[in-house]
Write a structure and sequence with these properties.
There is one protein chain. By secondary structure, this protein is mainly alpha-helical. It has one domain (4-221). 73% of the residues lie in helices and 5% in strands. It has 8 helices and 2 strands; from the N terminus they run H-E-E-H-H-H-H-H-H-H. Strand 1 (33-38) and strand 2 form a beta hairpin. The longest helix is centred in the C-terminal third of the chain and has 32 residues, at 190-221. The protein is globular and about 75 Å long.
Length: 222
C-alpha cells in the first residue's frame, strides 16, 4: 500500500471518529439535534438530526482517506507523488486530523460540554497550515495535489519555486491564525481572519507562479 504509515494513521483517526459517534449516538435521545456548524465566535448556528450530524465528519474523513489513497494511481504524474512520500503523508494526515478536531467539538457540544471552538479550531487550522507549509517545498510536480495554476502545471521549475514560496507563506499565515486564537479582540472575527489570510496566501502564490513563469519565458527569448 502506498504510504502505509499515513494510510494506517489516518485510518485509525477515522475509526476513532466513527466509534465516538456511535457511542455518543447511543447516549442521546432519538430526536436529538447536534451542531454541525459554528459561527465566527464559536457558537453553534447550524443543527442536524444526531444520526446525520454525528456521521458527517467521519464520512467526510473517510472520503478524504480514500481520495488520498487513490490519487497517486489516477494522477498522470503519480510517480512524483510517490517521490513526495513525506510531504504527501503530511497533507494526508493533517487533513484528517483537522476533521478529527472538528468532530471532537461537535461531540462535545452534542453532549452538552463546553467546547472552546473559538480557540481550538483556529489552533487546529493554524497548525495544519504550518505543517503543510513545512512540507510544501518537498511536494513534487503533479496534477492533483499542491498549488495548481496554469504556470506551475506547465513548468516543473516554476512548480518547485512556487511551492517553496507558498510553503513559507503558509507557515506565516498558520502562525498568525494560531496566535490569533489567543487574542480576545480577534475571537469574534476568527472566521474572517482565517478566510482572509488563506485567500491572501492563495492569491500571492498564484501571482508568484505567474511572475516566475514570465521570468522564464523572457529568459528563454533572449
Amino acid at each position: 500500500m502506498f504510504n502505509s504509515r499515513a494510510a494506517w494513521t489516518s485510518a485509525t483517526l477515522v475509526v476513532l471518529m466513527l466509534g465516538a459517534s456511535l457511542w455518543t449516538l447511543a447516549l442521546l435521545p432519538a430526536d436529538a439535534q447536534v451542531p454541525i456548524h459554528f459561527n465566527a465566535s464559536g457558537a453553534a448556528d447550524g443543527w442536524a438530526p444526531a444520526a446525520v450530524g454525528l456521521l458527517l465528519a467521519p464520512g467526510l474523513a473517510a472520503f478524504v482517506w480514500l481520495l488520498m489513497l487513490k490519487l497517486p494511481v489516477v494522477d498522470p504524474l503519480g510517480a512524483n507523488l510517490l517521490r513526495s512520500a513525506t510531504a504527501y503523508a503530511t497533507v494526508w494526515i493533517g487533513a484528517v486530523a483537522v476533521l478529527f478536531a472538528v468532530h471532537a467539538m461537535i461531540l462535545a457540544s452534542a453532549l452538552g460540554l463546553a467546547a472552546p471552538v473559538a480557540i481550538v479550531m483556529p489552533i487546529a487550522v493554524g497548525l495544519l497550515l504550518m505543517t503543510i507549509g513545512n512540507a510544501m517545498g518537498k511536494l513534487r510536480w503533479n496534477y492533483t495535489v499542491g498549488i495548481r495554476t496554469p504556470w506551475t502545471i506547465a513548468d516543473e521549475r516554476v512548480w518547485d519555486k512556487t511551492h517553496r514560496f507558498g510553503g513559507r507563506a503558509l507557515v506565516v499565515a498558520g502562525l498568525a491564525i494560531t496566535s490569533g486564537a489567543f487574542v480576545p479582540a480577534l475571537q469574534p472575527w476568527q472566521g474572517l481572519w482565517i478566510a482572509g489570510l488563506t485567500v491572501a496566501v492563495s492569491l500571492l502564490a498564484v501571482l508568484k507562479s505567474y511572475l516566475l513563469w514570465r521570468e522564464r519565458q523572457q529568459a528563454s527569448e533572449r
